[in-house]
Request: fold
Amino acid sequence: MLTIVRRLRRALVAASTLLLVSGALLPASARATELFGGLGTTGVELGVAERVGGAAGLRMSAEFLKVGRNFESDGATYDTKLKFSSLGLYGDYFITGGGFRLSAGAVIGTRKATGNAVATNGTLSINGSSYPAAGESVGAEAKFPSAAPYIGIGYGHHQPSKGSGFYLDLGFVIGKAKTTLSPSAGIVAAAGQANVDAEQRKLQDSVDKLKAYPVLKFGFSFAF
Reply:
C-alpha cells in the first residue's frame, strides 16, 4: 500500500508541475483551464484539464468506484465487490477544429475485484468436484496492475471559450489482472492442495481472457 501511495504522490507532483510549466511558457491567449466531473465504468471522476496550445491538451483526474452485490445460490451466500481508487494522467490530441480527440495516458492506483462464497448448507465446487462444505468458504481476488496504459477516443476538454460544456470518453485500460484463490482450511483438507492449485489456474486462465478494461465516461466541465 505504501508503494502505491508513493507512486500516486509522485505522479500527482509530476502532472501538476507539467501543467504549471506548460501554462507559464504559453501566452495567455493560448491557455485555458478546465475543471470537470463525471461518471463511468471507472466510477466517479473529478479532474482538471489544460489546453497547452495548438491541438494538444493535458488532463489529470481522480477516479473512484466501489460497487458490490450479495446473493444466494445453490446453498451458498456470495459477496462480490469491485473497487477502484486511482489517478488518471492523460494527453489529448484534437483531430479537428472541434472537440473530437485521440487520447493516451496511464491509470495509477488500486483496481480490484473480490468475491467470497460461504456455504450455508450443501457443497462447494473445487476443480470440477463438489465437497460437503457447511460453514466453509472460498474467497477470490482479481487485482489489476497498479500502473497501466490507457488509449481511447473522445469528445470535449477543448475549452473553446469560458463556460460550461460536456465530455465523453471511450477507450481501454490495458493490462491483465492477477488472481488469488483463498479457500478455508476445511475446503483445502477436503479437496486437497492439488485440486485447489488446479482451480487457481482455471481462475487465472479465465481472467487472462480479459486483456483490457473497457472505459466509458461522460460528464460536465467548466472552463475559465
In short: The chain has a mean pLDDT of 84. The first strand starts at residue 32 and ends at 40. Residues 2 and 8 are 10 Å apart (CA to CA).
